[in-house]
Structure formats: C-alpha cells, structure tokens
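Hi everyone, sorry if this is the wrong subforum. Our group has a chain we'd like a structural model of before ordering constructs, and none of us has done structure prediction before. Sequence below.
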Amino acid sequence: MLVGWSLHTGYRIRTKQGPDVKAFLPFFIAVCNPPYTRPFHLPRHTADADADDDASPWVPVVRFAVPALLWGFAVTQLSLLAETPTGVICPAGWCIERFTPLAQLATVFLDAIIISQVSGLRRADQDRSGRAWHLLGSVILTSAAILSFLAVWSWLDPVNSAANVFLTPLEIRDVVLDGTFAAFVLVVGTYLLGDFHANLISLVTTGTTVSVLVLSTSLDSTSNVIWSDYRGVATGSVVFLGFGALLHLRRVSLPFGASPHREHTIALGRYFIYALGAFLLVLFHASFFRTRENLVFSPTQVMAAGRVESDTWFADATKSTSLESAAKEYRRRYGLPPPPNFDKWYELATSVNSPVIDAFDQINSDLLPFWAFTPALLRRKTTHLLEHPGLSMGGLLIQDGRTSVSPHVHGTHRWMVDVVEDMVKPFSQWLPDMQLAFNLDDECRASVPAADMTHFINMAYVARSRLQSKQSLVSFSQTPSPPWDKGFLNADDSIWGRRSNSFHVSSKSPIFSQLVAPTCPADAPANQVRWWNRKARCKECSSPHMENGFVRNWTLAADLCHQPDLAHLHGFLTSPSAMAASRSLFPVFSQGRAHSFADILYPSPWSFLDKSQYEEDKDVPWEDKLNSVYWRGASSDGFAVHGSWQMFLRARFVHLTSAIRGTVIRHDMLRLFRRRQSSPAADTAVSSMTLDRGSQSGDASNEQIMVNVSFVGSFSRCDERDCAAEHVTFYGSSAEPPAALDFHENWQHRHLVDLDGAGFSGRFLPFVRSASLPYRAALFRTWWEERIHPWKHYVPLDLRLDDFLPALNYFGGVGTRDAQEIAEAGQQWAQKALRKEDMQVYMFRLLLEWGRIIDDRREEVGFSLET
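Answer:
Right subforum, don't worry. Here is the predicted structure as tokens:
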C-alpha cells in the first residue's frame, strides 16, 4: 500500500516539467470544502451572526479563496526562484510534456477533493468518522493496484514502455522511506482533520516546506542572485501578505466550538505561522542587502590556480634530457624498469622533438589493472573480442614486425582500423607479436564494478613488485605459450551472428544505475542518492569540483560518482545510440571513455586523419575575428526516445543560447536567462547581446557579442515522435533545417564551444590549434587529457552549463585580454604537442607497455642500459 502511494508520488516528481503546483492545495480545498457551514463557525456575538446571515453564503468562500489563490502563486514563484534549473527542455508544439503542469494541477485538485471528503467524514458524528479511514485505505490500495500493473508492464518491456515505473534497488529504498513518511503524514493529518479545518493543515504544511526550501538555498551563493531579482521582492511581499490574510481566518479552524486545548493549539499554530513569516522577511532582507558586494562572476581566481598547476606539470613532464635520465625518471615515477625497446621509443620521441618525455601517467593508470590477469588470459580475452565482430570491434594484428587488419570489420568502419595501422607501421618492427581489439563505436565498453577493480589493482601491484625487484632483465619473448589463436581469421560470414555472453546491449535506455553506479565506491553519492527531479540542479553534486561558480578541478568534474544528477543531463547516460558493455575487464582500446569506465585510451583515428581539419591559412588573427560565440552541429548525443533528447547536452546548450538572444546581460541577471523557454527558429541563429563591462572595469562603454548557435540538418537519431518534437522546438513548425556550413567558418569567431556527441568530440583539437578561444563541456576523456590543461589552453565548462554565461560574459568583455592569452597559449602548445608525430609517440609507448603485460615472462621483461 505504501509502495503504491509512493510510486504515484515519485512518478509525478520524476516526470514533471513545470513548476510544483502543490502550493495551490489550500485554494482547491477552499473551493471544495467552503468554510461557511454553520456548525463549523466559532461562537460569535449576536450582531456578528445577524450580519453574516444577511450576507451571501459565498462571501466567506471568496474571502478565503482569494488569499489562498495568492498564496499558491506566491509559494510557487518563490519555489521557482529558489530552485536552480538544469535547462531541461519543455518541447514546443503539441507535445504531451507541455500538459504536465495541467496534469499536476488536476492531481492537486483531486487531492483537495479527497482531503475535503475525509475532512467532512472526520467532522461528522463518531459512527461515521471511521469511514474516513476506510476511504483513505481504499484510495491508496487502488493507487497501488494501478501502479503495480504499470510496473509489471514496464518490467516486461522496459525500453519501449511509455509509463516506465521499473525501479532500481536504490529507488525502491527511496520509495519505502518516502512511503513510510507519507503514511505517517496521512495518518496524523487524517486524525487532525477531526479537530482542525483542512486549510489550516495545508497552510502549515506548505509554509513549512517553502521555508525549508528557502533556508537550504540561503546557505548557497546562488541565493544572492535569486533574491536580487525584482520578482523575488514581489514574491516575498505576496507571501507575507498571504500569511497575514490567512491568519485572520482563524475562525474556520474550529469545527465544534471552542475548547481550552483547541484554543491553545490554534494559538500555537498562529505563532508558528508568524515565525515562518518573520523568518522569510529577515532572510529576504539579509540576502538582498548583501547581494551587491557578493555578486562576482569572474574566473580569475581559478584561472590563476589552473595556470600554476599547468606550469608545474610542464616542468615535470620534460625533465629528462638523455636516455639515461629518462630511464631513471621512469623508475622513479612508476616503480618499474622501462619496457624493452625503450631506447627505440626515446629515439623516435627526440627525433620529432616531442615536448613530453616523462609524463605518461595516463598509460600507466589505463594498463595497471591488467597486470592482475595472466598473459594467457589477456590473449584469450583479446581473441574473444575479435571472434565476435558483431560487438563492433576491429582487429589489428602484429606479427614479426608486420601489421595486418582483421578481415571481420564493418565496411563503414574499416577506415578507422586502416588509420591505426598507418599510425603503427613506422615502429611496428620494435613491437612483439600481438593482437589488438579497437572499439569502433563512439561509446566506451568496459564497466567494471568498483570492488572488482580495487581487487585487480591490488593484485597488479603485487605482480609489478616482483618485476621491480629483478636485477637482470630480458627482452620480449619470441613465442607466447599458448600462442595467439588465429582460427577466427578464416571464419565465414556466420561469425557476424555470434553473440557474446560477456557483453550486454543497453542501447536507447538509461545506463547510470546499471553501468555507472556499480563502478563507484559503495559510499559514493551515485550509490546512495537517486536524484529524482531532473529539472532542478543538485548544488551538492557539483560543489566538489567547482569554485566561485567555475570548474576548479577538471578531472573531478568528469567523475560521475559524486554527481548522480548527471544521470539526467547527458545523452550517453540517458539513451546511448549503441551500447554493448561488459562488466568484466576486457582489453578494449577506445578513442574516448567516461571517467568510470576501464577502456584503454589511444590516439583517435579521426584526429590522425584530420577529419576535422584546421588549415592555418584560412584562420584570421584574433583582432579580426568576430566577437561572437559560434557552434554548429547535430543532435548526436544519443538516440532520442520518450523525450530523452530534452536532457541531452547539445540540446540544452542550443536551448540556453536561444534564451539569451537580444537580451542585455548583467551580473545579477545571469541565472535568469536559463529560466526563459523561448524556442529558436532557423532564421534567428544569429543575434546579439550586450555585455556589461562597466560593472567590473569602471568603463561605461558596452561591447556587443554575437550568438551564432544552431543545429543543422534533419534530426535522425530519434523515433518519429521525438524527431518531430525536436524539429518544432529548434526549427519551428514549418521551417526547413539549416544547411551545414563549411568547417572553416569556425575561425571567423573568437568563442568556439566544444560539446560531447555520442562520444568525445573530434573538433576540439582543431579548435585548440586555431587562434580562437575554445570552451569545452565534456564527460568523455581522451589520450591527450593530461597534456592539455584547463584555464591554460581552453575554458572548461561544467556539464550543467551554469558557468557558460558567466564565462562568456567575462571573456567576451572585460576579460578579452585573458581570452586572447589562452587562445594563443593553446595554439602554440598544440603546434608542439598535438601533432600526428605526438600521437605516434604516445601509441608507440602504449604498445610497448602492452607488449610487456601480455608477455609470459613479464616479471622479468624490461629495458636496461647495460644490455
């Protein structure tokens, strides 16, 4: 019974798009249960009674309903101001999501009817009052029966069920806890309805709720922005007026006349409501007067810290100036001797003037857990991947220094493995025999539970310690035992139909609970908290990696373990297009991966082939670039089904920028733009906004920044309903999709934004190579992550995009000089460290390390200067 009631409540919260309308409950109760019935009045003076007898019986109803209606509007508005939205989109056109607020209003009305009926039964004679409990139990049991049916239906078809109420264990825990609390409230409320009017109970409940909400936001810096809005002033006034007006309706609170204990209770309730009003008033004034001095939206502090960290890394990454010093530094960093042929790698690195000689921590961390497996088992795991090409794996074989590509590769993806072969050929003669499985999909594939990963790492350190103690070292073994299995190379087309029991398809469905949360520690928020309200931002989730409203720790910003709210804010997590992941550790080489996954990162064929090419002769100097933010792309984050696109990163970004077109930005209004719900049309992709420079620099002059952001082409990764909704929302009901522009159009603009697609974005490296300023919001990490630094080479953005407008306001206005410095630093470093030669240096070292791990004598294998 309790579970059914909580399912009903949880489902309404989880799917809501509009404001919470439960604050209108007192108004509906006033309409459904008018306070003019004679037995419900307190004893009054005879003259007062006669006066009321001459008045219309609906006068008390109006007198109560009007303040209750104002109360509902005020509390709802105050709740919206205290709640920071995530930018989840309510689609344009005739979509079912747009009727969610109306449906919520209808449910609140039904709640008011139920409460009114229960109140009437409780106020009746003692023989009939028991019917209130019977009615309450019947309603809850009916709700439980309906929702149990929906749960069974969604369990049978969890992907295609439009009313999916299938719950995870964490969600069931929340339902049980909420159900227990709800049952307590229902029982106590039903009991109190026998002595007090329903409006008094609903008033105290909503007043307490909104007070707790405001108190929770008052401790956060965002409250300054909330309360500085003129709407906050009006809302606060209406709330206080509503309190005062409702307090004067005291006489409707006693149904059976006055009694001492009831009078004392009413007096206590009055003082409680007065205290709530006084608390809100004091909080409002305190927040309002401190707003002006605390409103600082400048990244200078985190930018300075980021540059110090970057300079420290540079100094540490290039300390070695000889083979001897490089080998010694390797031992110091990783506690091991370098792999065989380290001298050949060093020769390649120095011949191409690689600026990074020592810092390859990414390779070390990626390969560390594989030391826990025997070389023979790793070879079998690799062969398993290549024996199942339906998993979208491409094989590269190295034998006797020569390379070849597995014959079982999809034609549309063959180019990727061919590019990898071209990348490896210059140094393949120095590699041992091996087979490599490359992930051809955008999504990462290895999701290993945290407990298993911890066990693997502990075993890995034990295995590596035995190598560390060896005095004499040997080179790669010539013949592994057992040898690589090559039987699959001659298999016929039936090999495409093979299915692997180790990989499970999760396409077009949420993966956070199934594939992400298990990779986090048991006490992490991802395993302790289920973030139900997708339209409200979780402040605690972003606080570990944010400082002063900007990203302070870029590595931690991608860690999903402390950010359960991101389950709703990225296409990869809500509805990946192609997802076949394993919970076992497989040696899968991927171009990019989310933080919690265990894929081995390697340089992307997309970047090596210059699919998104930067041509310096088509770039323009910073001074000649338009002061504009530019983005063009497709909605490729995931497969849009059942409205999942409303939460995609790219969709939220385009929708956010559409809300600031033609708007004046001031520091105390930045958060208000995210509340606008305008729908961009194809012909309004370019517009301007004014950046307020005088507030920081004392300069009264204003500078215009253009907003040039739009999707291009038709929406294709979606079902029919969602494709139509996306088209209407972003292009209008009759507009044709805008055509894609030449990629070199990017170089005409100062501010370029890079966003994740289905996987990592292939545009970021060209953006860094250009003379423009790159902004980056990304969950996926790549091979070059450790050598490209936030605030030194680009501007990092949180995936919630709260910091985009403040960053744009700064770098497009008073921080123009800082913007140019970051753009120039990124361009200069990219010319040294992000070349094709640098990709080959990274790949050579990666495969040397991997070759040692799969060697049967790996606890003796290493490079020595004496050999």
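For your construct planning: DSSP finds 32 helices and 16 strands in the chain. Residues 218 and 292 are 15 Å apart (CA to CA).
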